[in-house]
Amino acid sequence: MTGLLKKGKYNSSILCASSIIYFFVGIVTIPKDIYLSILLFIVMLFSVLHHGNFKNFDFKFLDWTFGMILAVYLYYLVRVKFDVYIFSFLLILTAIRLVDHVLFKEKRYGIFSYTHSLWHLLSGLIIVFIISYN
């Protein structure tokens, strides 16, 4: 996997776009909810750190932990309405993540780089939708 990163074959441009989305949403939501903004910045930071160093388990753990905290925060504290759109988004993200996981386990890193980048981009766009929808 690290060979893909060194050769420049990893889709870092899509990952950068999703990080920019998280950063932009974090800035936009500062007046509305400072805690959500801080959480978005933390998720973005550990995502960037984790993707810069795949072998560091601490970054991976923190990336996943703060991602889950963000999901819970959005659902319970921001009062996201669980409707057909949110259910569809969660279903799509779960399906992409499952395919992503299988590709990684089968060491199909070329395809994995695209699906993983797509997952990050879609999750960022869905957060934008959730925040603007509520």
How many β-strand stretches?
0
Secondary structure: helix percent: over 70%
Rg (C-alpha, Å): 15 Å
Biggest sheet descriptor? none
What quaternary form is this? single chain
By DSSP (H or I, 4+ residues per run), the number of helices equals: 6
Which helices and strands, and how do they pair?
Layout: H1 2-7, H2 12-28, H3 34-52, H4 57-77, H5 84-105, H6 109-133
Helix pairs in contact: 2-3, 2-6, 3-4, 5-6
How would you explain this protein's 3D organization?
The protein has one domain (8-133). The chain has 134 residues and is an all-alpha fold. Helix 2 (12-28) runs antiparallel to helix 3 (34-52), helix 2 runs parallel beside helix 6 and helix 5 (84-105) packs antiparallel against helix 6. It has 6 helices and no strands.
